Amino acid sequence: MASAPPARAGYEHFPHGADVGVRGFGPTKAAAFEQAALALTAVITDPATVEPREPVAIRCSAPDDELLLVEWLNEVIYAMATLDMLFSRFRVTIQDGELVATAWGEPVDRARHRPAVEIKGATYTALAVRREPNGRWVAECVVDV
Amino acid sequence: MDPSRFIRIDATTWQIPAHSRMRVPGVIYATEALVREMDDKVAEQLCNVACLPGIVEAAYAMPDAHWGYGFPIGGVAAFDAEAGGVISAGGVGFDISCGVRTMLSGLPRAQVLPVLEELADALYETVPAGLGRHGKIRLADRELDAMLAGGAAWAVSQGFGHVEDLARIEEAGCIAGADPDAVSRRAKERQRAEMGTLGSGNHYLEVQYVAEIRDPRTARAFGLGLDEVVVTIHCGSRGLGHQIGTDYLREMLLEARAHGIELPDRELACAPIRSRTGQRYLGAMRAGANCALANRQIIGHLARAVFSRFFPGCRLPLMFDVSHNTCKVERHEIGGRVRELYVHRKGATRAFPPGHPDLPADLRAWGQPVLIGGSMGTGSWVLAGTRADGERAFASAVHGAGRAVSRHEATRRWRGEQIVEELRSRGVLVRSHSMRGVAEEAPAAYKDVDAVVEAAEAAGLARRVARLAPLIVVKG
Lengths: 145, 476
Known about the structure:
The complex is a heterodimer.
Chain A: E1 10-15, E2 20-26, H1 29-44, E3 54-61, H2 65-83, E4 85-95, E5 98-107, H3 110-113, E6 121-122, E7 128-131, E8 137-144
Antiparallel strand pairs in A: 1-2, 2-8, 3-5, 4-5, 6-8, 7-8
Chain B: E1 7-10, E2 13-16, E3 26-29, H1 32-37, H2 40-49, E4 55-66, E5 73-79, E6 86-88, H3 89-92, E7 99-108, H4 109-112, H5 116-126, H6 141-157, H7 163-166, H8 185-191, E8 204-213, H9 216-222, E9 228-235, H10 238-255, E10 270-272, H11 276-310, E11 318-323, E12 325-334, E13 337-346, E14 349-350, E15 369-372, E16 380-385, E17 396-397, H12 407-413, H13 416-425, E18 429-431, H14 435-440, H15 449-458, E19 462-475
């Protein structure tokens, strides 16, 4: 494969009729997954307001990359819901369909974070994990809010 | 969508004939203007639903249909277990048994207006709304299972509301056949601190007044008087329902091939009704529905406590409670034969016609009340099931206005503070901790609810009874 300029990591949202899509991208699949999780936080609040103080370990697995993305985002949603936390930093490694991650965040502070919505779940709608010709990885799906 | 793509049966009925892998046609009930406003995805998703095994008659879209997950939101489809029919976690959705209840204050608007600010503050203070705000109720494992089996009837047994409320809830407030053991530990964990909470997104508690009456006799039977104040709650099964959806979507998706089901869209994940997974999902989904009914019963109780403080003696009797994300077993006549069907309503309300045996005796002559949530600026509607010249879409009707603008776009176009100010100048008080959340729910982000209910009436799905206009909006 021809060498491409190193892809920068980042995230964005994309519109869906009733809800919102999260899209992460980066130089590796794992980086794209990390950014997709950050996009998830950004659906709720500005990630810059969330201090990455406390680490939470997350693991999951799935038969393919796309199902793994849904699985991963649902694990983050579950951690947010049950620990009452928001996360602003993620480190992900993926090997043979196994994802091992650490999410750093802090308890929800309603005055400071002003959470706009809570997320019900990640969906299989507009779900894709792909590598673009320039080498950049993209991980995206719609989330139900 | 371009209406010329469809066969026009009459002014409000549009058909997509069965083609390629579709087993039945797709039918859209809407005016031409509403069809034009709909996303192309509605037709695509309707065609996908029509491909599922055991589907009966047609895949239907209501006038408020929009792009959903697998099913369009505003989608209705029924399956026959005997014909290899399926049950779909995607066809019910993440927010199992999300729905609306309306309670009657009997108070004239003039009596409420002088204390509107204080009432808004008290409701916002008392009813937990939004992410990170929890209820005071904590359920131990056994109590949680009792709640999942008992629904609103369980809530009443715990002192939330009155026995009389139950007759005004679908299935008398308790969905039979719930299986708490089919609900994962994780789903239960997500519900620990969520009982009696409103949630966020398009969920709300509103104090409204009856702004217009279209059908005076039915309105009187429902207890709705012009200019009288009502309380309406829109919410669902909270974290528990969301996690049941997540759990079973994955399970059904991974098992689909083993069941010989080829999914046109992963979000349509389903299992044969007569399979272990199908039966477990049914049990879990019914438990989720009971959670939603219990939750609305508790929130109703919290609202009553506030109202009785401001207006001693005001008991807020329940007018009706309807769910609009469900799968129910019902008997319908198809081609002259009564069949037992698993009717999925995703963003659609059941609308039994007058005379239906499952309606409470005092409402039977009038048809089932159908509660339609609009946006916070425009208002809501009370409709009633209708017979017209036969059943439409298995006695189903619309559920809301339907979004016209995505959340993403809404936050670009509007600011929450502006919307709160604008609504205040029109006499509507908004209480929410998130201005971005308010912007995402801007009134203009929704379709015209009046046009939607007019289309529902023209299509013979339900008839208009009364229009409700907001005075107070509490949002998560």
